[in-house]
User: What shape does this take?
Amino acid sequence: QAIKTFFVALFIFFITNRLITRHLATISNHATTINLNTLDHPLELKRKPSKASQRDELDQVVSSINLLQTKLAESISDLKENERRFRGIFNNSEISIWEEDLSAVFDKLKDLRVAGVTDLRSYLGDDEKIALELANQVKVTRVNDATLDLFGAKDHEEMLDQITETFGTGALGVFIDELCAIWDRQESFRGQTCFRTLDGRKFPAIVSF
Assistant: This one.
């Protein structure tokens, strides 16, 4: 009886591994290695194709994963096309456009809420150093060609290196207004301020965030 039980268990183990376990391992390995470079490689199991009427749970999992990859590839393609269009508008616009990363600013504002600050304008008005610290955490990541022409910069590197020198009188006040707009969850903000070109000429401007 022990010998019979052993061989039956061994047979069940072999069948289970042959029909299920090895395919689950293939599915798991495929799922953990999906990336942007493998989206056009569908998942395939090494077994005979099932008829439509005989599709089992493994076939359904494979179909779901392949459908997911297809949708991801389509979404990425759409994103790339939107990015291309945005870059075309960004680079060819006659209006000065800046790309800014305010992640650190958002984190700081979140900390202030947690700390119990309710009136941001009053809080910043009591100590301008806090507003200056927040301003220094804003990262200008990119400007368009119209910005280079407006400020007299020869290239993007020169503009970004000297970006703080372009802020004129009232710039901090406008930045505080922008922070308050973010604080109040406004979707846009517009204000007036003064800028300086890299050679020192002052000019007024309307800024829109």
Q: What stands out?
A: The chain has a mean pLDDT of 88.
